[in-house]
Fold each of these.
Amino acid sequence: MRHTARRNRLRRGGLVGLAVLGLVAATGCAADISTPTLTWYINPDNGGQATIAEECTAEADGAYRISTSLLPNDAPSQREQLIRRLASRDSSIDIMSLDPVYVAEMANADYLTPVPEEYIDEFTDGVIPSSVESSTRQDELVATPFWANTQLLWYRKSVAEAAGLDMSQPVTWDDIIDAAAAQDKRVGVHGIRAESLTVWVNAMIESAGGSIVENPDADGAAEVELGIDSEAGRRAAEIIEKIAATGVGGPQLSNLDENAAMLEFQSDSGGFMVNWPFIYPATKAAVEDGSLEQAVFDDIGWTLYPRVDEDEEARPPLGGINLGVGAFSDHPDLAYRAVECIRTPERQSAYFLTDGNAPSNLAAFDDPAVQEAFPAAEVIAESLAASAARPLTPYYNEVTGGIQKSWHAPGSVDPESTPARSQAFILEVLKGERLL
Amino acid sequence: MKAKVSNRQLGETRLGWMLSAPAVIILLAVTGYPILQAVYFSFFNYRMTDPDNRFVNWGQNYIVILTDPLWWQTVGVTLLLTVVTVAVELVLGFALALVMLNALRAVRPWVRTAILIPYGIITVVAAFSWKYAFDLGTGFVGTWLAMPEFDWFGDFWSSFLVICAAEIWKTTPFISLLLLSGLAQIPGDMLEAATVDGATWWQRMAKVIIPNMKAAIMVAVLFRTLDAFRVFDSVFVMTAGAQSTATVSFLTYNQSISQLQLGMGSALSVLLFLSVALICFIFIRIFKVDLAQARGE
């Protein structure tokens, strides 16, 4: 008896449940059928891109819906995942947040839908030149600059003052190495065998007036010409050699990445450091949670990336994200409408405020809220304007892999042999004659 | 003279084939097909993101690999890592197997569980734990050993030591488990007879236990050698191949997944496959490992 009653209850409950599900499905389906969903593959951030996706979905008023899909943490893994999907012509990839260094490779493989004519002016006017350059392949705009990143020279005011350095004027690598060495302090650089080593080497070669790849538009790996074995390459090697030889790189030099360099900079041995702007919010947060003293935070200053030679302007590194539209997307037109919505200067400054990622559009820096939240904003804008992208070649992965192999460990770098050896090695790898 | 096969035996044989056929077919499809495709790709100069420039270069990839010092260096590192870890694991694993066998009945389940915990941890997670323990920034080992300024991942030998330690910690339980099954198979009366005859502990070990465990030992060594030769996770997590610690698997990964050089990567996978096959051949033919005997058949 009891069993029958229970069974009936269960059955009734089940029917109600089914009816509810049916209603939900019916309404949901109605919306889904008329509204195409665009998938935006985003790199991990503080949630800013997901917010933008929601805002643009609301703004589209039923024309499209953006759903985000999270990519792995580091740029090389993001590239691996995207390329594997694109190689199998994945139509679910509508919009991608791309590290600028992979744009050329993806465009060369025809994985990107180039920017339609009607958007070109809008997407490039008032945008940092190196960011536009990194979205361009063989004179065609193949991606859209979204946010840009650059490295600054962070310094401890007390150390600079004791060394008598005027940080309001441009300083050179030699200046800061000597200042740190004299006071037994450190110069934070990125000596780990990873992408950050290439970022560093590239910035120094560019600052010395050279380029790692001289013909980024070359077709075919064997056609690539390199400029590592040059005076600029030797100058870069001299700086690395000096950092290792004077000991200012610290005992962890060959494994120092951005985060480790920051921790070292915040310690008592901190002197100078080249690093991305996340240093400011990260240090502020450390003070707020009590793991760092306020005095350390107050002692930190920032300025433009150090020069290689006194009379030649520095070319700081460029990072950031460009937006690509997948070549196999079912809705490339809608995807570009969505990109137009995502990359507005207003959204870029809002994104800077929530996630700390600097805009690629210079107008976004004028936002008073940005200037209040990021005291370094002005220097960041100046640094971005002077920045140089890493080689924009489809064969970037071989180039960076070769640099990481031949310029590591920093202690083994020799200005006489490293640039020549590095260049010969990368050329052999590009021709398929050497393993990497 | 060959014994006449009865109808029933024939039927059973046929049934056996039919029962195992689906598994054999699926296995061939999921292993045979990729292997053949890798062999095919290995004769191409083929970069996944540059399909227009793909061409057949016949054996060029193999010539490049076999004449490249990097290949021989990775083979050397892999062999060294294999020999060191397997040797240490064998000794430690044997000791742990003895502990597991002889522990008091009350604590035996606890001892076995405790010993097996490292084996239950995912290799990547274990590798990260070891990396963070030794890392100069986050690590505590340097402070324990009164070397707070020593960068463990700063040169080959110290990096190699940490990688070996992580591998040994992680897989010794596996070896000890295999050895425990061998130990448990030794008849108790044989050991009793040896004791009655006045054999010392060492004599029992050398004359009774180890000879009777030969099959179990060889199987454990074979499995671990094959595993160790393919080591990837620890190297990937701890050094990413820096300080010349790249192994053959890491090199293969680098070529195929990072560089997307499908031709060169496939050639490396084929060579890795042949190396593993060679190890199996050496063990089974030269050391006469009897896999069936180890299972107690």
Amino acid sequence: MSGERKRVRMAGWEMGVVVVWLTWIVGSWIAAVMGIWLTGPLVLTLGTALGATAIFLITRWAIRWGGTRGLLARYLIYGLVSLFACFYLLGMVGAMMLKTPWEVGAGRAVIGFFVNVWVFGLMLALVKKLLSYGGGVMGVARAMLLEAIELKVVLGFAVILLIGIPLLAFVPIDEGRLAYRIQTFLSWSLTLTGLVTTTMTVILACMSLCGEVRDKQIHSIAVKPIHRSAFLAGKWLGIMSLNTILLTMAGVSIFVYTVGYLAQLTPYDFQDGKVIENEVLVARTSVKPVPEVPLEKYAKDELDKVMQEDRQRVLDRGYGEAEHQGYGAVGEDKAIELGREALFKQFLRETETTWYLIRPGESRRYVFEGLGGVRNKDEWFQFRYQLKVSGDRPGNQILMGLQVGERLASHEFAINTAQQLALDPNWIDEEGKLVMTLVNPVENRGNTVTFRADEGLQVLYRVGGFGDNLFRTVASSWFKLSFLAALGLATATFLSFPVALLFSLMILMLSAASEFLVSAMSSYGRIQALGGPTFIDEVIRTFGMVVGWIFSGYAAYSPAESLVEGRAFTWGALGILTLTVGVLWTGIAMGVGILVFRKRELASVQV
Amino acid sequence: MVKQSNAVIEIRGLTKVFKDFWMRPRVTAVDALDLEVRSDEVFGLLGPNGSGKSTTIKIILGLLFATKGRVSVFGKLPSDVGTKRRIGYLPEESYLYRFLNARETLDYYGRLFHIDRKNRQKRIDELLSWVGLEAVQRRPVGEYSKGMQRRIGLAQALINAPDLLILDEPTSGLDPIGTRQIKDLILELKRKGTTVLLSSHLLADVEDVCDRVAILYGGKKRREGTVDELLTVSDTTTIETANLREGTMAKIEALIENEEGESILRVDHPRQKLESLFLDIVHQAEAEGAVTHGALSSGKMAEFLSEESGGANEGAALIDSLVKEEVAKADTGAEKKAEQESGHEEGVISALTGDQEPGDGAHEEIKEVDTSDEASEGGVRVRDEDADMGVIDDLLGGDEK
């Protein structure tokens, strides 16, 4: 069983250094007990140097020893030695040098890194053990996992993640409000996790399968009684096992460093503490105001009025649209149809703009519905706004009135930046409605206030905690990665490594930018001044729209963004993402991969 | 549907054409090949480089697909996953995961065969012991020498105790002991009823262990039959007798009986070496202008290597003439030394055969080790024949080629 398991011993001089160091420590303790404190730069420097050398030698011995043992024992010993070394060195060095918050933070980040490495090693050993049960698929998955941790590029990515998260948590990024620091940490750590796992997954999936075909290991495997589909499934499982470990590590680290460390620091002021509590470490949902009369009705009434009073206007608009959209000469009926369509859109846009607009001396009533739960829970909630002011701007703020029922308050509203106001749950009526009237006083001469149509007026309220929101965010990443792993494997079934990698990255970029692609392509080639759309323009536009639409599910939700803003990434959204990206897309990619792989000749041409 | 028969591998009209990106035929690697490997036999596939051996094997294993023709293995198509449970395959090079150690490698392949854990561990222990890698089983395969990788490759081919073992250049990269082990293994497996398909360049290997062989050239089968059938020269007769006194060799049967009182022990057709037969077939195919996409050698040494001294070599010639005298003086001693070394080498070769004392071998002819059934049970038949390359193949293994 253990033919190569050798006794690993320290050399004589190495033992000597360790013994002298231990004697030094014991001597210091005895001296301290006797009331003699061995202090001073020389003593501390000597002690630290001796300690560092001894710890280096012990670590080296542990690595050599670990090399002859199983993975679990190896990581246990590595972890213990690393932790011990960190605490000792930090204690010694810290006593002398760590003074500023940056230095203390860096010291803690080092400890955090070693804790991460240790937990990573333990989880790896655990997953490896789990994968040692079962048949061929599990066997392939285990080999994939082992291959992954042997690859330097993968190890590099893992180390970046394991170092990066503690570093972002402990090193003070912002000296101002704690809420910003927490949000910055969440944003950066989630971005880092996403970047590392995404890139690693695509590279690993392409590299592994292409490598096995290129280096012909596949010759020994494809002749064994395992279906090629099962082999691909095993590869996918192996990659996702590693991703599960990394995402768990990242998720737990982010949670621990956020809740257990950052949230425990002293906030900048009382307001800062409330923001952290109610707007950051929370999962909130939002409701937008609902017009009492649907805006579409206003638009339609306006259109009907124009049709009766000024039909020629509709016709002219229709002919203009026909030319603009490349229809050429059209009949009257078609012109009317096109004109009505265009005018309806225009009126709806105008109505919406008007609805979000308050002129000086005017007020507007906004109704937010479905807030009965908030009233019942008696929890404070937030009114979020983002407005701009046209006209004679007084500065960064504008004074406005805010009336709910009998209550009237005035507030300096920030201009251009999104702000939140904490509101009393008693402002919600018994029907669960918040009826809010915003007043633009006549004193604001010439300053018309306009709220952003998409997210300019919202009410946010708590539906869950930070922990479960983070869990759903990480879970959503897992399903996205499952698709990328399948995509990488599928492309590797018929392309060589660099081409497969480029192809997969292109799909990834298309997926990430699908929303932008759809909006950009919708107006592609439509600029009349440039001669209107040609046939080629239409082909490109259609292709771009279709591609954008196909991949739109990938970027439809931004869980990380929601988490940073304290907004809920709901179970429903996670469910949709799971079904589309996690099941459908992954299934399609794997299906294509299996189809190609089964039909592919795996041996190269050697005649 | 492939017809069921007692043949383990049945190939009918197999053609494999490799095409380029535009689907234009580029190379015809196998051309209308018919072949049958029967149960319990050791079948050798011979041919020069590019003759279609590996392509045929890869089609049998389902790694390549036939362009035309039918291939069945145990009566099923090569793509049938169930059939693969009964097959063991050693590729021409051991393509293994470099990051797994020997034990993990065998465990991995064992799991692909769905062998239960207990049985798997037992087989792994036995195989590691057999291939001699027990002591280094925890070392990653990537750190193994080529021979060691070959051994672990062989072990993985046997993890499922296969009914059909396909060996592609099995002795390549192995030392003499490993080569011997492979041959013994093949014969042992044959005794136990395993069918073996063997492809090798080392003709002595094939001659020693194969029941039947097929020789391919240019993707076509040139000759097929038992080793005896192929090597027997039917238009000549040899007489083998006991040891005779000098002079009696010139007299024939009557003289032997009259003067020596000995009778003829055996009258037989002489056998040629497989190597000669192989070369004859290849030369004949070349003379016929048979098409091959494999290696073609003109047999001539590259000019730059055989170039006689020219203008550029005048300096060298001058130096030669100047040192000639010195060399002549040293010749006597050098010749003696060379003789000693030559004797020593022969002695080593003899020693490796295991039948001669090293010291005694210096002035004796090189003997051929016969690995027929009789020989494998301990008997060694000695023939008065010239040294042949087959013996050296045996002794030095593939690395020396």
